[in-house]
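Second opinion, please. Pick holes in both lines of this record:
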Amino acid sequence: MEKYRLKKNDFVKVISGNYKGATGKILFIDRKKGRVIVEGVNIIHRHTRPTQKNPQGGIIRREAPIAISNVMLMCPKTNEPTRIGMEIIKDETTGKIKRMRKSKKSGEILIS
């Protein structure tokens, strides 16, 4: 399992694959498999049979997972894809140390 610095609700850009250039919000991250579901990216058509819950059945469109290595975080300041670093920040009032994500492109601290 590799260490990824992406989180749910991050705004990302797809950098490779069939949906290269598409942007969207992360809906789900599977860290064990290294997959991520991005809003509006990799849409599949799922054929469902009628059930009690859905008596009509039919074709449902939904997002399928893509490899987490194929997406890159969008910098909120420059609105361009950026790598993510970590910065250790000490809170002066409480004395606690926090690890915060930081955009490599703009140097801005990422909050989420």
Summary: The two ends are 23 Å apart (CA to CA). The chain has a mean pLDDT of 90.
